[in-house]
Amino acid sequence: MKIVDAKVVVTSPGRNFVTLKLTTDDGLTGLGDATLNGRELAVVSYLTDHVVPLLTGRDPHRIEDTWQYLYRGAYWRRGPVTMAAIAAVDVALWDIKAKAAGLPLYQLLGGASRERVRAYGHANGRDIPELLDSVRARLAEGYQAVRVQSGIPGLKAVYGVHSTDDGGAPVLHQQARPLVEDWDTDAYLRHTPTVFEAVRAEFGAELPLLHDAHHRLTPVQAARLGRDLEPYRPFWLEDCTPAENQEALRLVRRGTTTPLAVGEVFNTVHDYQTLISEQLIDYVRSAVTHFGGVTPLRKLLDFAAQFQIRSAVHGPEDISPVGMAAALHLDLAVHNFGIQEYSGHTPLTDEVFRHAYTFTDGHLHPGEAPGIGVELDEDLAAAHPYEAAYLPVNRLQDGTVHDW
Ligand code: GCO
Ligand code: MG
């Protein structure tokens, strides 16, 4: 078998998605997600200018060899643009291989280790009553685990509270110019335990509650927050510090037994070495889409498993249904599955990317269609062209740029 065509499709059915489509000489097609929120066109260029010309004529079955060829061959390693581009190729090749075998991808990854995959959804509120309503809405949708994010008194816009919560399309972070959010760490550290107290009082002790600090704290602040949340038994505290300084997590770990989840901005196993080998975290958060694909994420999860660290694959709205499907096959197959983030996509996005995966009673299943189980409607995709969009920036109240 040979790859005879490779094309990059950019579409914006509510938000931008970048998809690589490979076609083989016997007519099989494979899809891979290369969406990098806010920097989409950089990956499009990387793929069309530097990767697509290398793909035609290659044997699509040689997934490991193609991965190493693109990773080592580029010489300039790692980074989100490179790794998103390689991820798209990797997933498209797995899609083709599984279709050629007539099997859903999870069967090629060792088969199902579980019946279904537990998901967590997002609950957001500008204040605590609005957050409680949002948790109620997620529970009504079937979720059995919920991430809780609340506005902070005195601050006008903070992470996680922009999406519409009326059952309509999430519009998180889509701005033609970066929106400016404001931030005050002391106010956040005072407010967040009261948020957990209120949610526990309303929904009881059993509901798994997650929280994302989005890289905003110092290690000592993170340890303090982790400790203050301990009475409410959070499922995890996510991205408490900017974790490219892996050693910082040693300080956090010393101060709290709140479980820690890290890694959505990481691209390779090297970003995790200290965190995993010293057991400084409990969950790895990388997306298939930003980590170079199924091939390296499987290796990461096998490494993490030796340290009782579990998966929590990144799955916000900016991962396309193609990236989500790839994640679900991996989730179903690996032994050390933890939880899967899932917010769903707009109905229009689900039309552009028809998928076999399903969400029922708070759990996902990748489905039994051969390959990853996603089909791209290229005509509908073309009717929704790229729109410039940025993530927000974050400033302290004196104007200093802070981590977002
Ligand atoms: C999460 C994330 C996302 C990111 C987004 C940036 O845990 O889901 O923090 O919501 O902010 O992926 O593009
Ligand atoms: Mg996050």
From TrEMBL:
The keyword Lyase applies. Residues 128-259 form the Mandelate racemase/muconate lactonizing enzyme C-terminal domain. Keywords: Lyase. The keyword Lyase applies. Gene3D superfamilies: Enolase-like C-terminal domain, Enolase-like, N-terminal domain. Its EC number is 4.2.1.8. InterPro entries: D-mannonate_dehydratase-like, DgoD-like, Enolase-like_C_sf, Enolase-like_N, Enolase_C-like, Mandel_Rmase/mucon_lact_enz_CS, Mandelate_racemase_C, Mandelate_racemase_N_dom. GO terms for molecular function: mannonate dehydratase activity. This is D-mannonate dehydratase ManD. It comes from Streptomyces lienomycini. The gene is manD.
